[in-house]
Amino acid sequence: MKKLFGSIYIPLAWTILIEILFCLPGSTIPDTGSMFTIPNLDKIVHIIIFGTFVGLWCFYFSKKSFTNQKLKLVFFYVFLIAAFNGIAIEFIQKYFIPNRSFDQGDIIADLLSAGIAYGICNVKLLV
Predict the structure, then answer these.
(1) Burial code of 61-73, b = ≥16 C-beta within 10 A, e = fewer?
(2) Helix 41-62 vs helix 104-126: angle between axes, to the nearest 10 degrees?
(3) Separation of alpha carbons 34 and 36, rounded Å
(4) pLDDT of residue 14
C-alpha cells in the first residue's frame, strides 16, 4: 500500500480529478439541497479535496531522497500550489465556467485545509 501511495500516479490522478470536477458546468452538478441538510457541505468537500491534495503530494515527495530541509521547502511549494489553485479556480469558475460562481468561503476552506495538511506533513518530519 505504501508503494502505491508513494508512486506519482495517486497524487497525479487526484490532481486531474479535482481539476476536472472544479471545471464542470454547474448544470452537471446535482442539486444536493433536497438530498442533504448538512450546512456548508461544499466547504467540507473543499476541505477534504485540498487537504488530500497537499497530503498526497507531500507523501509522494517524502519518499524521495531529499534532506529534511529540502523536503520542508518542497512541502511549502506544494502548499503554495494548492493555495494558488484554490484561489485561481474560484476566479475561473466565476468568469469561465457556466453556472458556477465565486465563493470566498471556498477559498478560506481551501487555504485552511491546505495549511493544516502542510503543518501535519511538517510535523511528520520531526517525528
Answers:
(1) bbeeeeeeeebee
(2) 30
(3) 6
(4) 97
Residues in the chain predicted with pLDDT less than 70, given as ranges, are 1-2, 5, 27, 29-36, 127
User: What is the distance between the alpha carbons of residues 92 and 90, in angstroms, rounded to a whole number?
Assistant: 5
Nearest Cα to 83, choosing from 50, 59, 116, 121?
50
Angle 68-96/104-126 helices, nearest 10 degrees?
170
Pick from 92, 83, 84: nearest CA to 115: 83
What predicted TM-score, i.e. pTM, was given to this entire model? 0.88
- How many Cα neighbours within 13 Å face the side chain of 35? 5
46 vs 53: CA distance, rounded Å: 10
